[in-house]
Design a protein that fits this description.
The protein has eight helices and seven strands, in the order ααβααββααββαβαβ. By secondary structure, it is of the alpha+beta class. It folds into two domains: 75 residues, Orthogonal Bundle (Arc Repressor Mutant, subunit A), CATH 1.10.10; 88 residues, Beta Polymerase, domain 2 (2-Layer Sandwich). Strands 6-5-4-7 form a four-stranded mixed sheet. The longest helix is centred in the C-terminal third of the chain and has 15 residues. The protein starts with a helix and ends with a strand.
Length: 176
Amino acid sequence: MLDALITSKTRIRLLVKFFLNPTMKAYLRELANEFNESTNSVRLELNRLQDAGLIERESKGNLVMYNAKRSHPLFPEIKSIVSKITGIDSIIESVIERLGSVENAYLIGDYAKGKDSGVIDVVLIGDIDKKILQEHIQKAEELVSRKIRAMVMTSDEFNVYTENQKEPFLLLWSKE
């Protein structure tokens, strides 16, 4: 859907990478390897996004790190568009809010890293009926055309999980 508006697949990947997880930072070679693109094509798109003010760069020694510019006036809208395109907003609406006893929901895995791999990993904190959860997940998968894997944990289990985990996780929804 986004590819009808933006013709560069590399630019779309960069937007997903940086706006799905705005705390994500990456450098040129890392992005080129991840996207299986040349460094020149990735650099060109990074420069275009930087010229538009959507991303910013920071030098750290020999590395130049890029990340989303959260102070940009269009940041919330672009983040919302990326969430809608990847289907994360549909998951929240169709799964999490209907379960009732969810305390928090976190995005983990590839999507938390800004990669649109087709598999959305979610951790739900609370007392949740797993049978009802599975029914809602199946409906949400049809809506977003992606596989959804959900883990249910207590707050204590999640605290232990995050202590041992080096991968990023994003708060998607909170009861508070």
